Structure formats: structure tokens, C-alpha cells
């Protein structure tokens, strides 16, 4: 009796392990959950729609397969002659509408949240160039204080296969955008030349940078870390070589970093003046 | 017009003219249909070679074969050629061959314009392809050619690109006018609109879509031309224009364009499924209504391609809801096909295999389309390989598979010979496996964060891309088998019967195989 | 047969006209888009010069709105251009003034056009400008610098959710465009007259 129970337990455990393993592998194959409330909600939305599609798919493909297996001429099937059913046709018009409404409700919720225009704690201007990003920090008086370019840092040799590719190949920059945790950061996006698009998958944030026009988006990141993304609007030759790298640090650390930047830019200004 | 019809009566007794002039001057719908089909097949191979260049470069991270500048030209021209040079002309070719045969008409309504609309195409695409050899290089701004990349920042060859689009557009509009005039005026007595074969119905609606949106594309490229050469600022912010306006105009054309490439496929698949299930099509009326609703909805969903440009919330919501609605009529169609199969007596010849794969894979493309419709989720999918996977599922395993199915289905009628069933099935399985190995991993690389249109990528996308490349080469090379099957069928192959397929329904199966040069000089009676 | 051909002629005519109409429609989308932009604030376009009724100029002291200025020059534009203040806090309904500057550091006369844009877009139709350098082109001689005032009113009906408005100005070099050449010629003609030394005062030479 005991041995039987333990073998069942073992089987269950093994199954769970398989599922856990599958889930871990699945994460690599799926949209990242990310590190903001918005990205998390988007991922949940994505999974909800995915599972609804899976269920519909199983039903439709199931029916298809059943008739492909059973209703074949080689098995002596004789064709039926029915060719319409108003009831059925009405049914499979109405049911999808209901399903769509169920999908649309949470989607609307998340979208409204993304479009929040309420106050923020900090503003960063993001400006796209062929082929790099410029970040400008605006202070409380909204004066621009710190500004720098962020270029691809991957050496040319790695791209041409002359040296071994590093861990963050094509997703590394010389100057990362640094922002503090638990801070609502508003991004103002524009472009210097053609249309670019600024995307950080882990923030669930993608917005176009359009020359002459301004766009805005926001993120409030809870977890410190380095988050990497890319330009996602074809912007010419080196479209594939202008990554977005954001380092999110605790507030105190950010203050230190920012003070150092201010000092550096003051020194630079002084040097320029001389 | 009457002259044409007299001429037509004139050469009634003799067959086609001899030599090259037959093809240059022909006004025969079957000749023109064949030329359209061969032209599109050549373009398919040209665009396919470009796709293989892209895939070869993306086989591994790093730059191996082509420079980024050339890579962008490859992606751009692959898209343009496949959309305007392969898929659309193939459907027009099928319409040329089959619409008159299906409605019992002796020819198209405007045979001479038919000749013109075909012969414009080689010039249009010759011009487009010639840009690749120009000093500035060919178009490199994506097949969606967003301003200002395609205006202020475009290579000099952009003007040739604009004229090529104009020519291809003119050809499409003429073809569409011809098809509508034929369908509305030349049906056999007794064939009411609601008795028309489904392929004719879907093409009628497609032709209206073409006339509605191809001129808008022409307008968009004309505005580009003016911006580039005549100092206007339609899309240039510095003169009070707006680059985003370009995207609105383009997608007002672009979204109906997507349905232009899929509605005729719906018609083809309806015929094939019904024939090989030996059962009448389920829900004919609702199929017609569903097709019409899809066409109508296609005009009010365009901005779902632009969820990230920063539209107001109300705009995002409207386009999200409208786009989701398209799932309803599309679902009706899929359910109807499955019901057509249900309790039928199925056999699985090559056309049926392609039709079944169409339903299966197009539905998967439909699911990813539904996911893309959800605006917040689209912020993550937009311009990643997830989108690339989506539209290749609906266009390759959707539109293209339906064309393959149609060719196998009607080839015996065109040539009088049966194709080799074993080789046909081999072609199907290689294509089916190739397509899935190529495009399924793209869902994953997209979700993992790989943007579209990049010549090199980060290491975490490497496995997915390696698989995609393997699949693409399997798919690409197996199309040479298709060419071999076609040649073999035309030159030899078993004699086909008049009916070709057991219990096939429709006027096209009442004329001998191969279909004589002139058919239905006397209109048939439709009960 | 003749009969059917006659019908076909009618069909073809209608279809050709339909196609031509759709070609026209593409161009009609341009003004249509402008109207939609103005109504919905799509893309944050702001309207032209605002004529304020004096009665409407009653500031709502109970509400603060932050206005933030973002200034940039587009690719290939060497001018120095910016705002004297990064931003300001205003009351809806009140008339405010903000100062901007532009300087042409090159050794040739140039013409600039500045394009405004507002985020969030839904605030655009509530942001009224009574005076703005963006209504005109600026012609600056080599080394010339101008101060440019911009007067604006934030509408009292600004939606509650909006607490900050970002106003972006992007300055483009239009010296080589037709309108720029015209403005430059006109300005040079005035400058050659001795009395016209002060013509750069507001920079609004092209108006």
C-alpha cells in the first residue's frame, strides 16, 4: 500500500518537475513578463488571448481531423447532402462575438492605464538619430542638465566574425540610460531625422520617435537591473545597430550617478568655454 | 468594342496565331491567363532568391554575406515583388483563365485592355529590378516605404520605384475593371449572382477592393514624387506636412490590399474542399455575406498597423475593436469549410492537401492576427518577428498555398494532362514542412524580442534563426520540383477527362480537357 | 452580344470614374487629416494664431498646469535654438509669455521654420497661442541672434487628467526650399535699405 502511494507520489512529483521544466523552457519561448506593472499586465493579456486561441484551435482542428480520419472515401463513407443550417451559422457568429467582448474588456483596461497622462517624478527626453539614441535629463525647473549619446559598443570585429561574440552582442552601448527604481519616469520621444521606435521589452514600452513631433510614454520600474531593447522601426542602413540599454538602480545610487554626471558636464562646459 | 467581338468571331475557326506574335498580340483570356501565371511564377522565384539571401545572412549572428545596405534592399524588394509581382498577378491569371469558364462567357469583357494590363507588368518589374543595379542601389526603405526614409532620405532610384508602383497599380486597376465588367455583364443566362461559383464571388469583391484602394496607393506615391522633386511638403514636417499622414494614406490602401491577397484564396479553397469532400459547399449564402463583411471592415481597421505612432486613446480603442470584429466573418468561413468536410467522402489528392493545409495554417495566422489586434499586446509584438511570422502564415501558407492548390486543381483542364500525383504530394509535403520550419520559430524569435528588418541579431535569437533558414531553403528548393512537375505535365502526362475530378461541379468541367482555344461561343444554359 | 457590350460600357465607365474618384480621395485625405488632427489632437498638432476674447482671459487660480518646453534642431540645422526657461507653471485661462532664442552661427544668411508639437495629444486643442515664432519663418544673417516671445493660453476646459503639457519645437533649415528662398530674398531686400537695421527684432521676417 505504502509503496504504491509513494510510487504515485513519485509519479506526481516527476510530472510536476516536467511541467516546471517545461515552464522554464517555455519562458524562453514566450513574451517576457518584464519588470513594470504594465508589462506584467500585457503579458497576462497575451497569455489569456493565447489560451482562448488554443481552445478554439483544438475544437476547430479537432473537428477537421475527425472528419479527415472518419469521413474518407477509402473507408466507404458516403457523402451527406446537407449544405446549410441557419441555427449553426447563427451560433458560430454569436459565440465569437461574445468571446471577443470578453477579450476586449481587459485589453481596454490595460490600454487606459498605458495612456495615463498623470504626473510623473522624472522626465527624460529620448531622441533618435541615424543610428544612435540621445538621452536628455530635465530637472525640476525643466532645464536640460545632463545630455549624452548612446552608441552601440559592440566592436566591429565581433560583427564581422573576427573575434568571439560577447554575451550582450549588439545589445550593449557606451552610455546607458540610467533611471531610478520606484519612480514614474516619463519619456518624451522625438527624432532628428527619420522615424525610429524606442522599445524596452521588459518595460512593455514601445513608442515611435517621429521627426518634428513629440510622443510620450512612461514606465515605473520596480526591480533594479539592466534592460535591453532595440530600435524597432526601419531607419536606414544601421537600423539593426542602435540598441536601447537602460540601467535601473536604487534611488540613492541614482542620485550619486546623477551628481557625477552634473559635475562632468560642468567640467566639460568649462573646458569648452576655455 | 464591337470590332473586338467581330474579330473574335472571325478567328473562331482557327486556333492561336503562331510564334511570338501569338503572345504579344493575344486577346484570348486563356493565353493571357497563362502569361499572368508564368510571369507570377518567375517573379515568385526572383522574390524567393531574395528571401534566401536574407535567410542565408540570418543563418548565424554576425555579418557574413551581405552588407546592411544590400540587406535592406533585399527585404524591400522581396516584399514588393512577392506582393505586387507574384501573389496579385497569380490571382489575376487564375481569374483570367477561370472566370469566363465558370460563368459561361466566351472571353473577358475587354480583351484588348486585358492584353495591355498584362504587358505593363514586365515593364513595371523590369524597372523596379533595374534599380538594384543603379549606383544608388534599389529601394531600401521597406515595402511599406515610410516617409521621410523614402523621401528626404531615399536613394536616387526612388523615382523609378515610384513609376514602377504606378505601372503595377495601373495594371491591377485595369485587370479589376475587366473582371468586374466580365462578371456583371457576361454571365450565362440563368446564372444569377447568388448562383455564381464562390471563386467568381470572391474575385468580384476583390476587384471592387482593388478599384477602391489601388488609386489611393497611386496618390500616395504621387505625393512622394511631388515632395521629392517639386518642393511640396505632404509628408515633410518642415513645410507643415506630417510623416504620419503617409502611414495613414499607405495603410488605407495597405489593409484592404491584405484582403485582396486572401479573398480569392477563400474562393479557391471553397471549390477544392467541396469537390474532394464530394459535398456541396456548406453555407454558400453566409460565405458571400462573410466575404462582403470582411471587405467592408478592411476599410476601417487600417490604423492597427500604427498602434505605436501615438494615436489618441479613442483612436486606439476604435481600431482595436474594429480589427477584432474581422475575426467573426473569418471564423464563419473556417467553420463553413469544416462543416463542408463533415460527413463528406474525402480523398486527398494534391489540391485537397494544399486546401487542408491552407485552412489549418491560415487559421493559425488568423489567431496571431487576433493577438496582434489587441493594442496593448501589440506594443510588444509590433515590428518584431512575431508580425513576420503572422503575415507569412497568411500569405505563404495562405494565399500561396491556395494558388498551388488551384494550379493542381485546374492544371488538367488547362493542359489536358494529369500531373504526377506522387510528385505533387511530394511537393506538398516538402512545402508544408519547409513553411512550418521556416515560419513557426519566427513567433518565438519575435516574442523573445527580435525586431524586423535587421541584418544581424543578438545571440539569444540564434537557434530560432538557424531553424528558419533551414526551413526557408527546404521550401525554396522544393519549388524547383514544382517547376519540374509543371513542365512534365505540359509535355507529357496522362490524358485528363472532361470532368477531371469525380463529381466535379461547375461549367468549367463541362468543356473538354484541354479547354479549347475558344469556349462558350454559344452561352450555356444554367438551370 | 451587342446588348451585353453596351452594358459593359456603362459598367466600365462607372468603374473608371470610381477609380479616378479614389485617386482624388487620396489627396482629400490630406486636408481631412488636418481636420481630424485639429479635433482629436492626433499627433499633437496645434492650431494657428488664437484670437482670445478678453472675457475668456480669466485665470483659474485653483488649478496649476505645468508646461514643459522641448527644443531641438533637426538634422543638418546648425542654429542654436532653445527656450530661456525649461518650463513654467501656469493657471488655465491666463495669458502667459515664454521666451525663446535662436542664433545663426554660420557665415551665411539662413531661413528656419519651427514646427510645434504637443504631448499628450489630447491637450493640443486646449493649448492656444496668440503669438508664436512658429507662425512665421525666421531669417537670420551670419552671427545674428534673436529673442522670440511666445504668448499662450491654456484653455480652462483642459481635461482633468492632464497635469503636464509638453510643448516641443523642432527647428528645420528651409533655406533651400522655395518658401525659404522667397523669405530670404524679401529680407535681403529690406536689409539693404539703411533704415531696416532692426528688422531682426522678432525674427518674424518672413511673415
Description:
- The complex is a heterotrimer of chains A (274), B (527) and C (207).
- Chain A is of the alpha+beta class.
- Chain A has 2 domains: 31-114, Helix Hairpins (Orthogonal Bundle), CATH 1.10.287.90; 122-273, Immunoglobulin-like, CATH 2.60.40.
- Chain A is built from 5 helices and 10 strands; from the N terminus they run αααβββαβββββββα.
- Chain A has helices at 2-28, 37-70, 86-114, 156-159, 251-273, and strands spanning 122-129, 132-138, 144-150, 177-180, 184-191, 196-200, 205-209, 215-220, 225-229, 244-249.
- In chain A, a hairpin with a 4-residue loop joins strand 6 (196-200) and strand 7 (205-209).
- In chain A, helix 2 packs antiparallel against helix 3.
- Chain A is elongated and about 95 Å long.
- The mean pLDDT of chain A is 88.
- Chain B has 527 residues and is mainly α.
- Chain B has a domain at 1-8 and 22-235: Cytochrome c oxidase-like, subunit I domain (Cytochrome C Oxidase, Chain A, Up-down Bundle).
- Residues 1-12 of chain B have low confidence and may be disordered.
- Chain C is α+β, with helices and mostly antiparallel strands and 207 residues long.
- Chain C has 2 domains: 9-40; 54-200, Ctag/Cox11 (Pfam 04442), CATH 2.60.370.
- Chain C has helices at 2-40, 178-192, and strands at residues 65-73, 80-83, 87-90, 95-103, 110-119, 127-131, 137-140, 145-154, 164-173.
- Chain C is flat, with a radius of gyration of 23 Å.
- The relative contact order of chain C is 0.18.
- The chains are: A alpha+beta (274), B mainly alpha (527), C alpha+beta (207).
